[in-house]
């Protein structure tokens, strides 16, 4: 790796973010970024391919949390064409962070079921519109009332048929089972640059984990004045029980610290390069998938919390 010029980073007053050097000076145990960024052209070209809405996402390996009856030891399952492994934590930098929401025809959706409505947005932007995954004249709405969709039907900024989420009853608080939460389930997609991996690892943070993860990341930005994309994270799992008494694996998040006990931070220039290499093209693929009549990334795989 070419030697990077050391650049001092301002320490944010009142927190644990340390002054750090450039990428070459980060502990090797965290991540070696240079090989990943050297694939910029390939990643961008594949992820931005217009002829296949999921072509870009297919090159990212998913890390899945256990579902159903939980094992004694909670670990992420990472399966690719080359290997299958289980890890307690997924460690690295956030290359892309995006919001997603799905609405199924029943509260008791089953594995493999396609949602009725999907919505999504890049980090920092609100999910304004939802999109049906089929023709409203012929699709099965199940327990959902089609008239509720008609009430909030609009055209989005590109002139496409859409449904304004702020007016959709199923997207409001207290619309969930027994008046708890939202009927439309939100999640977050994290694409993590990890050590020795050419492409980011893709994690889905389910509705039961959203509060802690979003509060943590928002706190860094709003309260401590730190861009979350500059920090290294460890994403783990903890055993929790939901309001229905069902046990599930909840995602946990913490910053990775150096030998001095301070959180490690990337230079702003490197953070922006990661965003251009991965964040922008991945967000473009996620946006296209909203308008493709449903996508396999939105199908219930049995792991909903």
Rg, rounded, reads 20 Å
- Please provide the ordered H/E string of secondary-structure elements: HHEEEEEEHEEEEHEEH
Distance between the termini: 42 Å
Largest sheet: 12 strands, mixed
SS elements, strand count: 12
The residue fraction in helices comes out at 10-25%
Q: Helix- and strand-based class? A: alpha+beta
Chain-wise SSE layout:
Blueprint: H1 34-37, H2 40-47, E1 62-64, E2 76-79, E3 84-87, E4 90-103, E5 117-122, E6 129-132, H3 146-150, E7 153-155, E8 161-164, E9 185-194, E10 201-205, H4 210-222, E11 232-241, E12 247-255, H5 268-289
Helix pairs in contact: 2-5
Protein described:
The protein is 17% helix and 25% strand. The chain has 305 residues and is of the alpha+beta class. It has a domain at 23-101 and 185-298. Strands 1, 2, 3, 4, 5, 6, 7, 8, 9, 10, 11 and 12 form a 12-stranded mixed beta sheet that branches. A hairpin with a 5-residue loop joins β11 (232-241) and β12. α2 (40-47) packs parallel to α5. The chain is globular. It starts with 33 loop residues before the first helix and ends in a 16-residue tail after the last helix. The model is unreliable at 1-36 (pLDDT under 50).
């Amino acid at each position: 790796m070419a030697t990077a010029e050391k650049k001092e980073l301002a320490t944010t007053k009142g927190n644990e973010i340390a002054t750090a050097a450039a990428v070459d000076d980060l502990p090797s145990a965290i991540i070696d970024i240079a090989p990943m960024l050297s694939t910029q052209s390939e990643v961008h070209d594949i992820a931005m391919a217009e002829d296949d809405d999921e072509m870009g996402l297919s090159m990212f390996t998913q890390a899945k949390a256990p579902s159903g009856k939980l094992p004694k030891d909670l670990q992420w399952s990472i399966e690719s064409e080359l290997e299958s492994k289980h890890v307690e934590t997924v460690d690295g930098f956030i290359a892309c962070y995006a919001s997603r929401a799905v609405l199924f025809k029943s509260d008791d959706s089953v594995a493999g079921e396609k949602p009725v409505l999907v919505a999504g947005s890049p980090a920092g932007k609100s999910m304004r519109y939802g999109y049906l995954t089929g023709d409203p004249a012929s699709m099965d709405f199940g327990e959902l009332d089609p008239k509720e969709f008609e009430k909030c039907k609009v055209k989005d900024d590109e002139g496409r048929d859409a449904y304004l989420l702020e007016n959709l009853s199923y997207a409001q608080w207290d619309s969930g089972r027994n008046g708890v939460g939202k009927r439309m389930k939100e999640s977050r997609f994290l694409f993590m640059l990890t050590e020795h991996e050419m492409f980011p690892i893709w994690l889905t943070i389910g509705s039961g984990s959203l509060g802690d993860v979003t509060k943590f990341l928002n706190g860094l930005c709003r309260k401590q004045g730190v861009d979350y994309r500059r920090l290294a994270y460890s994403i783990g799992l903890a055993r929790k029980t939901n309001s229905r008494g069902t046990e599930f694996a909840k995602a946990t998040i913490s910053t990775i610290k150096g030998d001095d006990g301070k959180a490690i931070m990337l230079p702003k220039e490197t953070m922006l390069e990661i965003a251009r290499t991965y964040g922008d093209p991945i967000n473009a693929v996620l946006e296209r998938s909203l308008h493709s009549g449903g996508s396999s990334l939105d199908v219930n795989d049995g792991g909903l919390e």
